[in-house]
Design brief:
The protein is of the alpha+beta class and about 450 residues long. It folds into 3 domains: about 1-215, Rossmann fold (3-Layer(aba) Sandwich); about 240-315, Uridine Diphospho-n-acetylenolpyruvylglucosamine Reductase, domain 3; about 325-449, no CATH class. The protein has helices at about 1-10, 25-40, 60-70, 90-110, 120-135, 135-140, 165-170, 190-205, 210-235, 245-250, 255-270, 275-290, 385-390, 395-400, 440-449; strands at about 15-20, 45-50, 75-80, 115, 145-150, 155, 240, 240-245, 295-300, 300-305, 310-315, 325, 330-335, 335-340, 350-355, 365, 375, 385, 405, 415, 420, 435-440. The strands form 5 sheets. Strands 3-2-1-4-6-5 form a 6-stranded mixed sheet, sandwiched between helices. A 5-stranded antiparallel sheet has the order 7-8-11-10-9.
Length: about 450
């Protein structure tokens, strides 16, 4: 208790603005009273942010209670009422909505601090739950006493106190608070840890919450060191939204795992709890085996795709493009076009097609591949399957179903733009009266030439 009070007096200066998450329960009332006591000695502003979860009959009474004590102590009151389905992952969704609200209020009042009333027992519960479920090093550390955000700091001042100390403080100061009866229910995972596991550990060692705090702090120190090395690895491994598997597989297992965890966090953001240890192990296995093309399906309808030496996320199925008549210009995608030219000085390139209109059936068309597609490749006897060309040219598997194929009106394949040309392509010294150019981007096109 003394550590908490000393800490608060050290960090809170004159004219400090604090947003407090105030539920009305004993924990938040304890912290509220501490802050109000400081407010009597220093000129500070306290904004109480209350979340009405709207799932219990007592919710309305608790809201009125919190609003009343704010008025009595000359503190500003902000409130939000949630409307979340209690059947599907309610705890996670409520937490997300709660912190979104807190962040909004902290930014609204330009607060230096956002404070919540998490105490030492809460930290123990979080660590044990993460160990049981599986997590990364940061997750095993639970939560921090101080987390720095761009505009404010999130502070948990009661982290040195046990639940018993919080209740003792409330009794000694004759503080009125609300009791959430749902905390006694075994329905929620956290409640079961709170009712059965934490009391057992405290019988072994009364102040075990302090041991867990030390454990958390040591893990944070290790995490900070590894974070610096992870940032270095990411610069070598990641290219925008793709992972270079050659570079990733040069890393040791710990760093590979951390890179994957970082990428998953970036992809899932607040939904990262949907990911567990099995998902990470599966991705690591995917990176290491020699199979060139793989798809791994992940929670929330996401999938991670391996194509040769590249790994990336995909949220939607690639759909084949429509068939187009090829006249003067066709836009294949935002980065691909095929255009007709009057002339070009380029001698040889798979990005340029020259045709004699007397040898083909017009009009020309752009389509995607069909089953059993074959092409008579220039300067090669016989035909070759389009499927085999894609494999030999290492065209990503997810790309093969949308790759543009140029055919004539008889559906004879004339050109795989940028890859291969058919026997119908003419050299510059031969007769031709049709010229087409395939453009991905000027930079990529020049590289290929």
């Amino acid at each position: 208790m003394n550590k908490t009070l000393t800490f608060l007096n050290q960090i809170i200066e004159e004219n400090t603005t604090i947003v407090l998450g105030l539920s009305g329960g004993p924990d938040s009332i304890c912290l509220f009273h501490m802050l109000v006591t400081i407010k009597k000695k220093k000129k500070i502003k306290i904004i109480c942010a209350h979340v009405n979860h709207n799932v219990r009959q007592e919710s309305e009474k608790e809201e009125k209670f919190v609003k009343k004590i704010c008025e009595q102590n000359n503190c500003l009151f902000e409130m939000i009422k949630l409307n979340i389905d209690t059947k599907n992952n309610f705890e996670s969704k409520a937490r997300k909505e709660r912190y979104n609200f807190f962040n909004k209020i902290a930014n609204k009042y330009h607060a230096e601090y956002l404070m919540t009333a998490h105490h030492g027992d809460d930290l123990m519960e979080t660590i044990l739950m993460h160990i049981t479920r599986g997590s990364n090093l940061k997750g095993y550390a639970g939560f921090r006493k101080i987390t720095t955000y761009p505009r404010f700091k999130l502070i948990r001042p009661l982290i040195h106190m046990s639940k018993e100390e919080v209740l003792s403080y409330c009794r000694e100061n004759s503080l009125e608070y609300c009791v959430d009866k749902s905390n006694e229910s075994d329905t929620y995972t956290r409640n079961r840890y709170r009712k059965y596991i934490i009391p057992f550990l405290k019988k072994e060692y009364k102040n075990i919450h302090q041991k867990y705090l030390k454990f958390s702090e040591r893990l944070e120190e290790i995490e900070e060191y590894l974070e610096k090395n992870t940032e270095i690895a990411l610069t070598k491994v990641c290219d925008f939204d793709k992972v270079n598997l050659r570079e990733l597989n040069k890393c040791d297992l710990l760093m590979k795992r951390r890179v994957i965890e970082y990428i998953l966090k970036e992809e899932y953001q607040d939904d990262i709890l949907q990911i567990n240890e099995k998902h990470i192990d599966s991705i690591l296995h995917m990176c290491e085996i020699k199979k060139p093309n793989m798809v791994l399906f992940l929670p929330l309808k996401k999938k991670i795709v391996k194509e040769y030496n590249v790994l990336y996320f995909c949220n939607k199925e690639n759909k084949p493009s429509k068939e187009y008549i090829l006249e003067d210009f066709v836009k294949i995608s935002d980065t691909e076009i095929i255009k007709k030219l009057e002339d070009t000085n380029i001698e040889k390139s798979n990005f340029i097609l020259r045709l004699d209109s007397n040898e083909i059936a017009l009009p020309l068309k752009v389509r995607t591949r069909k089953e059993k597609d074959e092409m008579a490749i220039k300067n090669l006897n016989g035909t070759k399957k389009i499927k085999d060309i894609f494999i030999n040219e290492k065209v990503p598997k997810m790309r093969r179903d949308t790759y543009p194929i140029i055919v004539d009106n008889n559906d004879t394949i004339l050109w795989l733009p940028g890859l291969k040309k058919s026997k119908f392509d003419k050299n510059k010294n031969e007769f031709y009266d049709i010229i087409y150019k395939y453009v991905i981007s000027e930079e990529k096109n020049n590289e290929k030439k």
